[in-house]
Write a structure and sequence with these properties.
Blueprint (H helix, E strand, L loop, with lengths): L1 H21 L7 H17 L9 E2 L8 E7 L6 H11 L5 E4 L1 H6 L1 H9 L3 E4 L13 H19 L5 E2 L8 H10 L2 E3 L3 E2 L7 H11 L5 E5 L5 H14 L3 E2 L2 H5 L7
Parallel strand pairs: 1-6, 2-3, 2-8, 2-9, 3-4, 5-6, 7-8
Bound molecules: zinc ion (ZN).
Length: about 260
């Protein structure tokens, strides 16, 4: 939150002033303070669950065995349709955080996602590696562009935004507030795109807890195997997959 940043900045300034009062001859004491300040800011910007720059909905506080599952980076022309089929065969609803340019390339898949009762959210237009270096205006432009294309296909304008790579910063705080969107993080991710599927499944079943928002990618060629195993395990262990909006008590679309 901005209040927290302001208080950290004020504490750093007080430390600097106090230090200079007691030790005017040396400025070396500043080095650890500055390093600590940089580390805190890096951690705040790369750990979405810390809510450092702004609030993101990352899990629900509940003892009920309810969780929500989410898929980022699609729609993918081959994987997403198979995933929709798999989810449908288990009667499970998920949320797809789509990249605007992929939506433009594969609008029919987005129609199918909605038709099957899943939710759609915004995951930027280009998902550039440098998204977090954009100005707030350019971030806003990507968010608006993605919402416009999604609205033209589905008739609904998403309210949910998942920051690319989960990175947050003051520019994104401004863009989210100007677009009146809500930031959604996650509480469980297994780096499903880079790890061996068996490894991912083992970690999923060890770490799943009530109220989790689980992050997957529907661009991952192993996602069907992972999700199928996971759904069976959830069922066996009395977990229920609910919609992201009911888990977090938020709205998916503008009225
Ligand atoms: Zn992503």
């Amino acid at each position: 939150m901005s209040n927290r940043i302001n208080s950290i900045t004020i504490i750093v300034i007080i430390l600097i002033i106090t230090g200079s009062y007691f030790n005017l001859t040396s400025l070396y004491y500043l080095i650890p303070i500055i390093i600590l300040y940089i580390i805190v800011n890096i951690m705040g910007s790369t750990s979405i669950g810390l809510n450092y720059y702004f609030h993101s909905y990352s899990n629900a506080s509940t003892t009920k065995k309810d969780i929500a599952i989410t898929f980022d980076d699609g729609p993918h022309p081959h994987i997403t349709p198979k995933l929709i089929e798999l989810l449908d065969s288990h009667n499970v609803k998920a949320t797809f955080f789509c990249i605007g340019k992929n939506v433009r390339a594969h609008p029919n898949i987005v129609v199918d996602i909605i038709d099957k009762g899943h939710l759609v959210g915004n995951h930027s237009y280009r998902h550039s590696k440098f998204f977090d270096l954009l100005s707030s205006k350019n971030m806003q432009k990507e968010m608006v562009e993605t919402n416009q294309i999604l609205e033209s296909i589905t008739g609904k304008s998403p309210k949910l935004f998942r920051p690319p790579f989960g990175i947050t910063n003051p520019m994104l705080r401004k863009a989210i507030s100007r677009t009146n969107m809500v930031s959604v993080g996650w509480s469980l991710r297994l780096f499903d795109t880079v790890k061996d599927p068996k490894n991912v499944i083992a970690k999923l079943v060890t770490n799943t807890k009530p109220g989790d928002v689980v992050l997957f990618h529907d661009t991952n060629k192993n996602i069907l195997e992972i999700v199928e195993e996971y759904l069976l395990w959830l069922k066996k262990n009395d977990y229920k997959i609910v919609s992201l909006t009911s888990l977090l008590n938020i709205e998916a679309y503008e009225d």
